[in-house]
Design a protein that fits this description.
Length: about 90
């Protein structure tokens, strides 16, 4: 089965991986950031499990250093929109 790792904002998954094929984003968080969080599964199923949880505003600068700039995210979003046929 393996372990799923995700970096997300609510239902929006920014990045994910499984087993050893994932980017480790733990540097965005501190040890004290572990709290109950919702895990979303297919069929509308939700589970509450411990996870790293932090307000977006407190990690913006760290995300920027990792290459997740506002401009870059906008560009990726636009690419996705353009790749979908009408």
């Amino acid at each position: 089965m393996g372990s799923m790792i995700t970096l997300g904002l609510g239902h929006l998954e920014i990045e994910w991986g499984k087993n050893e094929f994932f980017m480790n984003h733990s540097k965005l968080f501190m040890e004290t950031d572990i709290a109950p969080a919702a895990y979303y599964y297919g069929g509308g199923q939700t589970e509450i499990q411990p996870a790293y949880v932090r307000k977006l505003g407190s990690v913006i600068k760290r995300l920027d250093l990792l290459g997740y700039t506002v401009e870059g995210c906008g560009s990726q979003y636009q690419d996705c929109i353009e790749s979908i046929p009408e």
